[in-house]
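Q: Start with the shorter request: fold the first protein.
A: Done. Sequence, then structure:
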Amino acid sequence: MDYKILFIDTGYGQKWPTDLLLLSLTADSELGDAEWWRRMAILQNAAAQASDSNLLAELNKAKEKKYGCCFPIQEVTTSQNMPLLNSLEDTIYFAPMKNLQKMMSEEWFDKVSTNKNRFTMAWRDKLIIELMNSIYRDDIAREWGNPDQRLQLKGHLLGAFMVAGVFTNSALCVARTFYDTGKENTPEVKTLAKYMGDCRKVLCTEWIKDYVKTGS
C-alpha cells in the first residue's frame, strides 16, 4: 500500500521505510510494549501530519491485532486534530492528567513564566487536557503508572515548556523555584534539572512546542 510519507525518522539518527516500520508492529514478536508504543506514536504522528488516512487505518488494524481492540473513534477533536474524549474519568489517563494540572497550577509557575497574561491557569489546564488526549497519552499514563518514573515525566514536561519559551530561566533556576529552595542546588533540584535537559529525547516535546507556537 502506498503512504504519503515513504520514510520516517525513528530517532537515534535512523530513518525507516514507512511500510517496514509499520510491519514491525505486527511481525516482530520480540518487540517490547514500550518500544511498540514508541513506534506507534511515531507512525501516528507522521500519519496525522500528512493526513494519511490509509496509514491511520493500518495502525488501527495493528493495535487491534496486538491488543484486541481498535483506537476509540471520537467526534470531537483537539486543536491539534486529535481525538478529544469528553471525560477521562475511570481511565488510566485521569490520574496523570489531574496531577499534572495540579503541578502546573501551583505558585512556582508564575514565578518563572515569560507571559503570565497568556500562560494562565486556564491555558495550562487546557494544554494538559489536550496532551492527555493526544497520541502521547499512553506513554504518559505508562510513565505515571510507575512511581519511579514520575519525577522523570515531570522533568521532561517542564523541559519541554522551557524550550518552547514558556519559562524565563535555566533548568536549574526553574527546578529551584519548583522546589522552593532559593539558590540551593539540592539533589532533588539537580535531578529534576537533569530530566528537564533530557526533554528533547521525548516525542511530546515537539507537540508542546507546536502547541505554544500556534497560539492555542
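Q: Next, the second protein, separately.
A: Sequence, then structure:
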Amino acid sequence: MFLAFLSLTVVGVALLIAVIIFYSKKDILVDSDFVVPDQAVQNKAPIRPVSVQEPETSSNDRTDSKPASDETEVKKREDAEYIPILRINEEIPGIKGRELVHYAGVGALYSLESTEDLKNIEIKSEDLELVVEGKLFLTSRYIIIYSGETVKKFTIAAIESFRFSKSHLIVKRKRVKTKKDILKIGHDLKDFKYILHALT
C-alpha cells in the first residue's frame, strides 16, 4: 500500500515538472518572437541621426511673403486711421448740418502777438491775451471753443503749422503773420493730440 502511494506521488511530481517545463519553454518562445524583431530593427538603425530637410521655397515665394515687421507696420497704419466719433446731445454753436465730433473737453484760447517761428515761441502767461475759456470741441473740419455767446471757430484746413508745448497748442494760421493762437487743453491732452495729428 505504501509503495503504491509512493509511486503515485513520484508520477504526479514528474507530471507536474513536465507541465512546468512545457509552459516555460512556450513562454520563452513567445518572448523570443517579440524580442528578435526589435533587436533586428535596432541593428539596422543608422548610427547618425537623419536630418529632416525643410521644403525648398522658390525665390518667388520668398519675395511674396511679408516679414513680420511689415505686418506690424501695416497694423500701425490701420490703427492710426481710427478716429473716435462722439455723440453730443447738446447743440454746439458754429456747427451747421451734419458734422462729426471727435473730441469734447474744456480749454482756453489765448492770442499772442508774435512774428517768431513756432519753435522759438515760449509760453509766458504775461504775454498771453485771453480770448475765451470754456467748452472745447474738435470736429472733422473745425476747432471750436465757446463760453456763453462767445464762440471761436478755426478751420483745420486753415492751419499752416502747429506744435505742442506741454498742454498748449501753438497755431499759426495761413495768411496771418503777426498773431499766433494759443490753445490750452484742459484734459485728455493725449487724445486731442492724436486726433489733431490724424486730421491734419
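Q: Describe the second briefly.
A: The beta strands are 101-113, 129-139, 142-147, 150-155, 159-165, 168-173, 179-185. The chain has a mean pLDDT of 76.
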